[in-house]
Amino acid sequence: MINKKHAKAVKVEDCELVRRLVSRVAHNPQSGCWHWIGYKDSKGYGQLRWGNRMHWVHRLSYAAFVGPIGDKLQIDHTCCNPSCLNPKHLEAVTPAENRKRQSKRAHYERGDDDVPI
Question: Which of 9, 24, 29, 111, CA to CA, is 20 to 30 A from 54?
Fold first, then answer.
């Protein structure tokens, strides 16, 4: 089970966690994405065991490099890459905003819309 609450409390001062995160990253110079090369779930989201639980690496990265994740917020990949953990590509949004963005991206990918997000 993924632990969302623990990721809220991660701080960049937690050197061991930051070391583990960056040790499993492949940088893409064209996109700027930090691709997670560790374990991924069936949808491509990176996961890492930290403590006794599995965590999504994009949430850990956001919490470590940007700051706490607000209650009831989700982390959106503005690059549309679920394996990316570049904090510059991550944004804390409400679940409604995340669904809205996902819907727009799906329409764009199908060719329904002319303009990406």
Answer: 29
